[in-house]
Amino acid sequence: MSKPKSRPEAWLAALALTIICLISLGNVVVRYTTNASFAFTEEFSVFLLVVLTFSGAAVAARQHDHIRIIALEEYLPHKLKRPLYLLQWLLSVLLLGLIVWYGGLLTYEEYTWESLSPGLGYPTWIYLIWLPLLSLAIIIRLTQSLIERWKQSLTAERSDV
């Protein structure tokens, strides 16, 4: 069975990592050749690391690669696996739902207050909007993963009977 796809998040993660590498390398080269450095690299790198982390988490969620209690899953009877899958999903959605809610509130507040980033003076909501959006993407991918695992568990249970 091939791994499920989550291409938008995978492309976003790859793009974020590529940009981090390029601006960091560029900054190092400029710093050592001119004794100056780019002002934007730290601010952009931190932002891109958040994008990379959350988009990578969405990919991992879709492919069932998140850290979970694998040993417990493997040794549980098929009838108990589905409640465990549901519990894992519920707790993950609860946590990510809080991030979506409070991240959305923070983004809205930063937008209405017209807050600017300290380094470059860009609106901070541009950086913050990715937190609730990518958390929502993780919830979607976790739900897809739950449905797939649920169906596989039902199939396995039927084959045991």
From TrEMBL:
Subcellular location: Cell inner membrane
Pfam families linked: DctQ
Gene Ontology biological process terms in this record: C4-dicarboxylate transport
Signal sequence range: none
Membrane topology designation: Multi-pass membrane protein
Keywords, ordered alphabetically: Cell inner membrane, Cell membrane, Membrane, Transmembrane, Transmembrane helix, Transport
Domain spans labelled Tripartite ATP-independent periplasmic transporters DctQ component: 20-151
Stretches that traverse the bilayer: 12-32, 44-63, 84-104, 124-143
Keyword Transferase: no
Record's subunit section: The complex comprises the extracytoplasmic solute receptor protein and the two transmembrane proteins.
Biological role: Part of the tripartite ATP-independent periplasmic (TRAP) transport system.
Protein family per UniProt: Belongs to the TRAP transporter small permease family.
Protein name as annotated: TRAP transporter small permease protein
